[in-house]
Every structure is written in structure tokens, then in C-alpha cells.
Records
---
Amino acid sequence: MAPPVMSEWTVPAPPRTATDRPIRGWRIGAGIVLAVSAHLVLTGSGVALFRSGFGDAYLEGGGFLGFVLLLAIQGALVVCCALPGFLLLLFGDRGFGIGLLIGWAAGVAPLVLLGYLTVSAARTM
């Protein structure tokens, strides 16, 4: 008689979960402060650069160049805040990653408002 068939398959180890490290509130706050301050610094310096470079004629052309400049600044902030925040959320420090994403999203609304006010100011002149 033949020996019974034995399976050579073993149960794999459970996958590593992201709950290994706790989410700390102060790290979320630090991420928010960093992302919002990056918005303030980059947007403020971009607007100041735009105004100083063009003098009194900075609103000619309907503010299109200002819109493009603010769009480029937003692209830089996506690369510097949202992408690392997402990667940290997935693979590293989740608290700081969540903070970066919240701060980046909180800074988008004033940037959109600033772009709208720039374009509307150009149309009223």
C-alpha cells in the first residue's frame, strides 16, 4: 500500500501591516505646519518675484503669466509635499505623511483664491 499523500505546502507568515507604529498627534501637526509654511513661502516669493520683475505692468495680459507662475509653484508643492506625504503614509511615518497631505490640501484653497483675485484684478484695471 502507498504512503498517504502529504502536502508540502506551509502557511506563509502574515503580511506586515502599517499598524506597527502609532500615529502621533504632534507629528500630524508638524506635517501640517511644514506644508502650510511651504505654501506661504513659495506663493509669497512667487508673487513678489512676479511683481518685482514686471513693475507696474505685471497685470497686463489678463494675469495669464501670474496664473502660469502659480501653477508652476503648485506643481513644485505637489512634488515636495503631496508625493512625500503619500509615500510616508504608505511606507514610513504615517503621522507626518498625513500631516503633509492635510497641510498641502489646506494650502491649495488660498492659492486658488489668490489666483482668482489676481485674474479678477487684472480684468478690472
Note: Residues 24-124 form one domain.
---
Amino acid sequence: MPAEDKSVEINIYIDVLFLTNYLFDSLLLWVTGRLLRTGLNPIYLLSAAAIGALYAVLSFFMKIPLWLSLSLRLMVACLMVMVAYRPRSLRIFCRFSAVFLVSSLTTGGSFLCLIYAGGIGARLGSVLYNGNLYINLPAYGILALFLSCFFLLRGLLSVSGRIRATGHNIVPLRICLGKRSVRLRGFCDSGNLLKGQDGRGVMITEERLVKPLLMQEGLWLTTVNYQTLQGKGRLRAFLPDAMYLEKGRALIPVTPLYVGLSSEPLDLYQHWDAVLPHNFEEVKNYEIQNQDPAAKAM
């Protein structure tokens, strides 16, 4: 008897192909941003995802040699990184590109294992061609699959952030300037070595969190030079009138630090919102032991 032909013919719809790659490129860019703890502009992110999806549609219907396909895919990935994150230097660009490529390979490889090894691909009618994935589902099915992956990855990243934060020394602070004050959660376990021109330590926080203090008349701002893996720069800073540690309902005064202003979020998991100097714990303990134990009531 002749062998039975069990092959299945699948119609490829351009809009479904574009939507599939658009959504999952957006997801990969979002994961990369979370891993790098960088702020994400939705417009830039979605524009970069559109570039990747457009390339997926074009390359899906073209016969491209393997060596050229890999080169073009790498170029498109770099273009997506430039559009999504707008890196300020070559070093940052290379770092972001490397993380994005690793995220793509890891996430894409895991997804393909589920599709093919788990037999899901046969049931969904998925097609992989020129490195591009097509899933034979209606738009609402693709959206449901995307949301499932999004919430799964979001949960994993959140749990990872909580585990990473466990054991970190988070110090509740109150910073006062004039008649106004703000409360911050300072992160002690850091490599912050910044100092002002007078040798005083510098803590870093998000500018939006201390905005009430910045509205004071006659506020004097200084600059602090810094150097990181991402390059050199200047950080705007101010010196508050007073700084307190919050311990229950008591305020324990400590020597004020310069407050450096960052326009970027410091911790996307929101466990803390200020980076304290590396020796803050030691200085804090010394000051507490050598001052009047009476605390100021809140």
C-alpha cells in the first residue's frame, strides 16, 4: 500500500506573521530593558519592534543564504537596540546589544523547545522559516499567547528581584530642606564611591522623588563628577539641611549627605529608591553610638 501523506498545508497570512513577530519582539525588548534596569519609552520600544516584525515579513518570503541571513539579522537587532534604548555611547550600545541577543536566543530557544519538543507546534500549525516564526492562530489567539508569556516572564522577573533583594540592607530615611521633607528608602549594599568637593559622601535618588525640595527658593545646586562602565558625566546635587534615620516612630539625626539627582529609575522592582555611599552603614553606626540617644518624635 502506498504511504499515506500526512502533510498539512498551511496558508501564510502576512498580517498574522507581522503581528506574531511584532508582539514577541516587543516582549524581548521589554525583557532586555528589565534585565538592564533601564527606563523604557513605549514609543521607542514599539517602533523598534515594528522594525523587527517588518524584517521578519520580508525575510520570510525571500530565499536568503544562511551567512547573509545571519548578517542581516544581526544588523536588524542592532538597529532595534538603537531605536528602543537610544544608547549614549558605543560601550552602552555594545552592552545592550549583547544582552538583547542573549535574551533573544534564550527566550526564543525555550519557546521553540515548547513548540516542537512539546508537540504544541503540530497542534497550532506553526512554521519556522529563515529564523522567523509563524503560528497558525487567529489574532485573538496570538494576543492571548503573548499575554500568557508576558505575565509568566513578569512573574519570574519579579520573583527574581525579590530573591535578589533579600538580605539587602534597606534604610528608611527622611531628608529635610527648609520646611519640607521627603521619605526615601536607601540601599546600603552598594559600590557608591561618589564624594563632593568637600569630601562629603553622595547619595543618589530619583529627581522626581525629591521634587518638593527642589521647589525651595534660593536652592543651591552643585555638580559631582562620576565615572561608570557607561562613561563619565556630571551629576546635579544639593545638600539638605538635615537627614534622619527612621526607626519606628523616632528620627535619629545623621550627618547630611549630598543628594545626587538621577533622571532614570534606580530600581525597577521598587524595593528601594536611593543609593547610599558604600560606607554609610559604618558611618551610621558610629554616629548613633556617639550622639545623644534621645530621638526626635515624628
Note: Residues 1-6, 294-298 have pLDDT under 50 and may be disordered.
---
Amino acid sequence: MAIEDFAMYLVIAAGGIEMKLQRDLYKHIQSQYPHIWHQAYSYNRQPGTPVRSDYIRAMLKNGELATNDDPKLRQYRQRRRWLYALVAVYFGLWLLRFV
């Protein structure tokens, strides 16, 4: 197998891990923060509210969930950072192949 095959498998695995992390996060938000879940997924949202995952993403970035010290949210952020760091390191190693 060539290095390109490993890169392809890494990207597929990273995408799968990212989807699992988001699915677990959404389940946690649905059970622990029903007001946020209702605001994101109800048909009678307040005017100007972004739809669905955009609303949750905005809450994670600079809303109530951004300043929250919930262990599940910290774990999600930490695992996501590690995943992106792993992909960046692998990409850097792939670039070193051309030097």
C-alpha cells in the first residue's frame, strides 16, 4: 500500500470519529440542555435563530455552552482538538515526503 492509501484511510477514520463525537454531543445536549435542544429543533423557534446544528454550533462557540464547565463538553472539545492535531501531524509528515 502506498502512503496515499493510508492518508485516505486516515481521512475516512477522522470523519467517522468526528461524526461519533458530534452524535454523542447532541445526545448529551438533548438530555442535559433541553431548552437549547428545543430552540434548535422546534418548528416555533424565536425569530432570527439559526437552524438546527448551526444554532448548537453557535452556542458552543460563543453562547451558553462556550462558558459552561460541563465535563462532557470539555471532553468533546479536547477530543476534537486532538483529532485535528493528529490530522495536522499526519499531513505534515506527508509533506515531508516531498522534501
Note: The chain has one domain: 3-96.
